[in-house]
Design goal:
Number of helices: 11
CATH class of the largest domain: Alpha Beta
Oligomer: single chain
Number of domains: 2
CATH topology of the largest domain: TIM Barrel
Shape: elongated
Radius of gyration: 21 Å
Helix content: 25-40%
Number of strands: 14
Strand order of the largest sheet: 3-4-5-6-9-10-11-12-13-14
Distance between the termini: 30 Å
Structural class: alpha/beta
Length: about 350
């Protein structure tokens, strides 16, 4: 076995093979698997169903949690809980638990930093460091699920909308989703997951071909290429036409509605003309638009649109039959809102 690898990086088959090499009976695999994903145990000593020698061997061989909580911030209304996690190589990431009336949602990261360089996003402003491994992605979910369990609650939703572009780390992100979806493990339904992408056409098409039940959200933020080039620089490589073509392919293959995300910035992309052009762009496509009043970051001078502008934008979309919501702002004062996550210590 590879020393100090995260045990959460292992698939069930890899875990079975590792235990087999240790001369363990087959049923040990499920004991460990359920301990990790059902009981949410985070250290080897908790696996009391295993022999002491095996627990000691696993502890010496694997890390059970590949990240360590460093700093926690809780919003004034107590509904948003942000944690800075240290990784074993000295990097760090942030993840956020959001409490709503009927659900508990964790927003997790897929990369340390991000290469997309979106002008208004704190993660994009810090640049790209590296992809996260499967175990590092899973561990964010299990950490909060463990805390909720101690409070008599359960995690209801996972959104991959934290640091990074999930589709640039496609295999690791979907590997983590599959593990968390496993009915013999964490058993969170596929439709409880949402993956948010800035719009990488090849990966959207690949995702469509897999015909998953996982929800897809695409960040647009502008309805013409000139403006989107400024806000979302990857648009220069993958313009709106290519992104929307991939979205239509996704719908044709899956018949699943998409969500388009729109960070609403005062005087930039909140005009009636932008809303009207968005209606034209999405014509014939089953979609929902999620308006997100801009959350402030230190390196972007833009301001969130006034509520009347958000309501006007929403009304134009709804007049043309496009469902639209204005996202409830959560955790802005602790830099836990959409676009505000960053590794302060990297």
């Amino acid at each position: 076995m590879e020393e100090n690898r995260s045990i959460l990086d292992l698939t069930e088959n890899e875990l079975r093979e590792a235990l087999n090499r240790l001369g363990q009976p087959a049923y040990r695999t499920m004991q460990v698997w359920e301990g990790l994903y059902k009981n949410l145990w985070q250290q080897s000593l908790e696996f009391t169903s295993l022999p002491n020698l095996l627990r000691e061997t696993l502890n010496a061989t694997y890390r059970f949690m590949p990240l360590t909580p460093n700093r926690r911030l809780i919003s004034k209304d107590r509904q948003t809980n942000k944690v800075l996690f240290d990784l074993v190589d000295g990097h760090s990431i942030e993840a956020v638990l959001m409490n709503y009336e009927n659900r508990r949602t964790v927003c997790i990261s897929s990369q340390v930093g991000c290469a997309m360089n979106c002008s208004f996003c704190a993660t994009g402003q810090m640049g790209f460091r590296r992809n996260l491994a499967v175990g590092e992605i899973i561990a964010q979910v299990l950490f909060f699920a463990h805390e909720l369990k101690q409070q008599g609650e359960t995690l209801s939703n996972v959104v991959v909308m934290g640091m990074g572009e999930p589709f640039q780390n496609y295999e690791m992100v979907l590997g983590a989703v599959d593990r968390l979806n496993d009915p013999r493990g964490f058993n969170l339904g596929a439709r409880r997951f949402t993956i948010s992408t800035v719009g990488l056409p090849d990966q959207i098409r690949h995702f469509a071909d897999e015909k998953r039940q996982v929800n897809l959200a695409v960040s647009l933020h502008a309805s013409d290429n000139t403006l989107r080039d400024q806000l979302v620089p990857i648009n220069r490589k993958y313009p709106l036409e290519a992104v929307l073509d991939a979205c239509r392919y996704y719908f044709d293959q899956t018949s699943r509605r998409l969500t388009f995300e729109w960070a609403l910035i005062s005087g930039i992309n909140d005009s009636p003309s932008q809303a009207t052009q968005l209606v034209k762009l999405t014509h014939g496509l089953s979609c929902h638009v999620n308006i997100i009043p801009l959350n402030p970051t230190t390196r972007y001078p833009g301001q969130p649109s006034a509520r009347e502008y958000a309501q006007s934008f929403k009304a134009i979309l709804e007049q043309h039959g496009i469902p639209c919501t204005i996202r409830l702002r959560r955790g802005v004062e602790i830099q836990a809102g959409c676009g505000q996550l960053a590794s302060r210590q990297t």
